[in-house]
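Regression test case RT-17, inverse folding.

Input:
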């Protein structure tokens, strides 16, 4: 097991033929505890895979420090960093058996045959490659996608590294197999107790597997925290919209002082005369009093909107689509000014499409965001990070 430290890690790709330089990773600093399962998540192009490749030594860094197990590894080649990487495309040798694929790296490093046999057998048993069918003598073309991914995991396991690196290893599998392999990798982490760094664009994988999640966008870290922290206490609009499915609902509007206290007034499309009005509870109103009269974004998750017959604080939703999911149902529609989704447990949802229903929010679960910066501004006690200043000074570095 080993701690991994990244300090102000940067990657700048030089421009070609008149194009400007591309900042792929912008001063990322992380401390990954020994034995932790950390997931880097974000949309395509956010820099998460570049960070992983720099840790592995497969990508040169522009500036910053990488330490693994207390040792600075900036100038150490990948083979000497004591890490093992599992790739998206398996990268198995098609002419070798499963056993040879798993043992080949150890053979090249000169390990004794008995030690190789012991490690391969141990990994094969842990990954179910021996029972119910012995797959060690098969070649990759005779394996399913899930079996090939298990072999790729086994090849990493036999190295017994300090750190495991996973680069979107489940992307090529079907939905059912992804669920099974998520559970398999989580079980391996509990069994091995080793440090794992996992990259994915799938927020479901991140939420179900991680001890902590790092959300990235445009090369920068947006928030670091447990899955529960990110879901219930997002630091900004990007995190709130990226984590959770269906995504959080956002409503543009203003905060106005009324006789009852502070009220959120939804911004409506032209021609609509019935905006949503939410009177805030005293605690929330006190935290947002400085925003009175200013534009603001209200965010609420679909499950925090409940059907309500009362007129007080109701949100009128015209239902466009009903998605039955078995134990729950998703309703998609529009209000006087915005699109909106809600998650309900009502069983009788037939005939709702085209009709209007009334919803009321859970005030304890409302979020408010600055419409310009995107920062959460309702004063929740959440782990925040200070985003770096513009990257201009780094453009002058020689790569």
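Golden output:
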């Amino acid at each position: 097991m080993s701690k991994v430290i990244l300090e102000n890690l940067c990657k700048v790709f030089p421009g070609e033929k008149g194009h400007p330089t591309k900042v792929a990773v912008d001063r990322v600093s992380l401390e990954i505890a020994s034995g932790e399962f950390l997931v880097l998540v974000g949309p395509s192009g956010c820099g998460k895979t570049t960070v992983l490749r720099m840790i592995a030594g497969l990508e040169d860094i522009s500036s910053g420090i990488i330490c693994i197990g207390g040792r600075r590894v900036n100038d150490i080649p990948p083979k000497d960093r004591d890490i093992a990487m599992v790739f998206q495309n398996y990268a198995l040798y098609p002419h070798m058996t499963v056993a040879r694929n798993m043992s080949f790296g150890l053979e090249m490093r000169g390990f004794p045959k008995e030690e190789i046999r012991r490690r391969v057998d141990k990994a094969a048993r842990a990954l179910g490659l021996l029972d119910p069918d012995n797959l060690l003598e098969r070649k990759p073309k005779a394996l399913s996608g899930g079996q090939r991914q298990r072999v790729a995991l086994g090849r990493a396991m036999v190295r017994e590294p300090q750190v495991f690196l996973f680069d979107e290893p489940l992307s090529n599998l079907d939905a059912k197999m992804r669920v099974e392999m998520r559970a398999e990798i989580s079980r391996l982490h509990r069994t091995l107790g080793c440090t794992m760094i996992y990259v994915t664009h799938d927020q479901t994988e991140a939420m179900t597997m991680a001890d902590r999640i790092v959300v990235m966008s445009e090369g920068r870290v947006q928030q670091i925290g447990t899955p529960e922290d990110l879901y219930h206490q997002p630091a900004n609009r990007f995190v709130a919209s990226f984590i959770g499915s269906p995504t959080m609902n956002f409503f543009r509007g203003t905060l106005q002082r009324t006789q009852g206290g502070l009220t959120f007034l939804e911004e409506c499309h032209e021609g609509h005369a019935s905006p949503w009005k939410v009177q805030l509870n005293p605690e929330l109103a006190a935290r947002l009093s400085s925003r009175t009269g200013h534009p603001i974004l209200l965010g609420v998750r679909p499950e925090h909107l409940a059907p309500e017959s009362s007129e007080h604080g109701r949100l009128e939703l015209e239902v466009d689509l009903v998605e039955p999911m078995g134990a729950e149902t998703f309703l998609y529609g529009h209000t006087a000014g915005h699109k909106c989704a809600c998650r309900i447990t009502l069983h009788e949802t037939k005939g709702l499409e085209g009709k209007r229903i009334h919803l009321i929010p859970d005030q304890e679960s409302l979020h408010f965001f600055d419409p310009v910066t995107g920062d959460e501004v309702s004063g929740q006690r959440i782990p925040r990070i200070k985003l770096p200043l513009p990257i201009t000074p780094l453009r002058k570095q020689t790569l």
